[in-house]
Amino acid sequence: MTKTPHLLNGSMKYDAGPAEAGPDRALRHGDGTPSGSRMVEGPAGRKPRKALSRRNILIYGTLIVVCLYYLLPLYVMIVTSLKGMPEIRLGNIFSPPVEITFQPWVKAWAEACTGLNCDGLSRGFFNSVKILIPSVILSIAIASVNGYALANWRFKGSETFFTILIVGAFIPYQVMIYPIVIMLREIGLYGSLTGLVIVHTIFGMPILTLLFRNYFASVPQELFKAARVDGAGFWAIYFQIMVPMSLPIFVVAMILQVTGIWNDFLFGVIYTKPDLYPMTVQLNNIVNSTQGVKEYNVNMAATILTGLVPLTIYFISGKLFVRGIAAGAVKG
Amino acid sequence: MAAATRPARWHRNISAKVAAVPMIITAVVVFIGGTAWTVLYSFTNSKLLPREKFVGLAQYDRLWSSSKWLISIENLAIYGAFSLIFSLLIGFMLAALLDQKIRFEDTFRTILLYPFALSFIVTGLAWQWILNPDFGIQHVVRSLGWESFNFDPLYNPEIVIYGILIAGLWQGTGLIMCLMLAGLRGIDEDIWKAAKIDGIPMWKTYLFIVIPMMRGIFITAIVLIASGIIKVYDLVVAQTGGGPGISSEVPAKYVYDAMFLSQNLGQGFAASTMMLLTVVIIVVPWAYLEFGGKRK
Amino acid sequence: MEPSISINNLSLSFGSLDVLKDLNLDVGQGEFLVLLGSSGCGKSTLLNCIAGLLDVTGGQIFIGGRNVTWEEPSQRGIGMVFQSYALYPQMTVAGNLSFGLKNAGLPKAEIQERVNRAAKVLQIEPLLNRKPAALSGGQRQRAAIGRALVRDADVFLFDEPLSNLDAKLRADLRVEIKQLHQKLSNTMIYVTHDQIEAMTLADRIAIMRGGQILQLASPNEIYNRPANKYVAEFIGSPTMNFFEGELEEAGGNYRFTSGGKTFSLDGYTFQNGPPAAGAAWFGIRPEHMVSGAEADTALVRLDGQVELVEPLGSDTLVRFTTGDQTLWVRMDGQANIRHGDAITVGFDPARANLFDKTSESRL
């Protein structure tokens, strides 16, 4: 690639090509007025670019290969879950099922054994739902009100408490697990779904509060002041002005919470009793603690079933999900 | 000119204060109180239930002479270092590729990010299956002709942590990629134009101009990855259960096992305090750098 | 003399959208050309095409006699200054100036020499070790120009460099750019939407609209003899007065009739020779109308009533109605005139502007 002639040799200005022996100069208006074609021999118009240029191959090639690596586990899971056991033992995990069967799915849902009972994942699914809905509602309700209070109604000490909350988001859960066990035991909620809901609310608070606080802080102050001049109070402004305006952020918060709570394992296994285990815990029990013959197809069906809810939400919400992650990730 | 009597100081914003009570309770009681309590009780010899008998640093002595703990620390270090490096590298490169005004960008991004929506349990189990030596990758490659191909990280104590690493990277890199992409999109387009006029090749523009401009994003990414590393638990439980033997133990699992399985609360408290210490050592200098001593 | 830049039949389309249409343009050596227009007219696009940052769909570009249509930006012999200056934020000013040169493999000594030379011309020597964040707006502009200067480019391109600044700073930096051009005499192409910048800086102005050049002429020419109604409306503040009417011809003499009033057009020079009679626009600038005592001796007189007075200190702008028209006139700053007063204004048809009603080109 030739370097700019200018920069190499101070005296030489440019490649002196042959003088342009153009048509009669008088005919060539260089003053903007249309004058027919003034073009001469040489490069003109669009620069020739091969669609299959090296650059394109590199970019698309790399991306496609990486995407295959990312899709591989999903593919393997689905394919395995649709095969019968004999076929699994014979073949390799990458080959598509010769004979498709949905039996593993049925078994995973209704009959798989977790060591305590043989109800399949359905029990865990409903437990997860029962945990999810109150947790999401409660954590978002509290955090949004918190964020609103912090953004618009600063009072003495509010910033300090908020800072503690944020710092708390960095503290490893392990350090706070047992004190919470004790506290829940004292209130009599240890081992119950309600107790778990409270735990999820507590640990969801830092990031959600941050999310809502930043959002409400970006709402123009004039709106808030006008409402106060009109005589509205704390709760009135919240319900009649703030909430209707912030539907997008509520959706983002919901996506974050649904994904986080549904996928949780640690809190589920600590704060509930075995028959109240959420789906993730049950899944682990089914796959990792069965004695005897491992039914890989059932295991994979069970795994997919567990991942189905957050995956569906992910695919439906698309861009909002990305925004939620980015928002939650801004402060860790 | 006094109007009606002014409400008492504490009465102002009473609604806001009441509304913030849950946050205050959480912050003070759970976060500060809970942490303090655990740290305190790590100096006792609590077993099944918390006991008030103080034994100084005995729990820590025991901790640091436990091979299970030492292995878990080592695993965490390896997992952490590689996770950090590769997440940043892969995440940035994918983001740079996606930033090239390509077609199907949304499709690519959707595919690269979906693992993030899954539970670590799901991830662990899926990769456990893929890395299964009898049916998974090793078997497939062998059946293609390479008889002596060995790839069963999950059964090899030396390299099991790398098997977990593969799964962890698969799950977490998508998020870093999104973060980096957001950062890249925030770069003023004119900077690219100026570099083009100057004749700077693409890779140099990235290395010397764009990446230094993204310092904030990189730091956020590092903090994010780091906080995720410390917490790694579900993945290990699902993929290997800590095995083979104790070769894939991690601190978070050590804590849980001690507290709820081996009825050794004191050890659990000591281990979790050590985890807290590690976080403090990483986060405090970062917070100081980021906020320059203005705040805390 | 060989033009510094030649644009031949340049076209640029995005899909079915034509952004630039068959443009032809010659820029002389050392000329300061301003591309002027409102947003979306294609001026920035044209500049980016000249720079090589955009790929054209048709036509050719010559810089310094060389066909650069397919050349990379760094090979075209140009330097560019952006609206946001785009200085590399993590490098010092010296680093910014030398980065491109280092990349081209120039020896250290030469790089140093060029950087120092540019710094001297622009008077930014004391700033060489500072980072862009520590510079003021004016200093940043000079640093950005410096980056273009060290490339020993023949042509400098400016993409609305003053648009982000407040009025005072804009005025100061405008002067600096003009002084720079006088000192360096490089060819400069400058894009702006601000007519004041255009009028004060340009040797020639190219007014653009819808991807085409409406008029390419000196500021004086554009001001006094705008080529069409759009240009006439665009240039000049306050805006030109317009009224519709009929152009009538009788034995070689032309008259203009509007709203019942008729006046002679003796003294007016037609652009392309005597035109046919027909519907036309009549335009006269507020500053070309006289009032008070002077109006008594003007060739054309209008009587009206004052509607609105805008005192500016240096001038007074007065809006008045006459017949069914509303017009503006510029008067002296100390004029004693109020809403409701009767007013008589006059003008000389030689300073008027006539435009064909349908084509809107100058008659």
Automatic annotation (TrEMBL), chain B:
The chain crosses the membrane at residues 21-43, 76-98, 110-130, 159-184, 205-230, 269-289. One of its GO terms (biological process) is transmembrane transport. CDD domains: TM_PBP2 (cd06261). It is a multi-pass membrane protein. It comes from the Bacteria. The keyword Manganese does not apply. Keywords: Cell membrane, Membrane, Transmembrane, Transmembrane helix, Transport. Its main location: membrane. This is Lactose transport system permease protein LacF. The gene is lacF_4.
Automatic annotation (TrEMBL), chain C:
Its EC number is 3.6.3.19. The gene is malK_7. This is Maltose/maltodextrin import ATP-binding protein MalK. It comes from Roseibium aggregatum. GO terms for biological process: carbohydrate transport. The lineage of its organism: Bacteria, Pseudomonadati, Pseudomonadota, Alphaproteobacteria, Hyphomicrobiales. GO terms for cellular component: ATP-binding cassette (ABC) transporter complex, substrate-binding subunit-containing. Its main location: membrane. It is a peripheral membrane protein. Keywords: ATP-binding, Hydrolase, Nucleotide-binding, Transport.
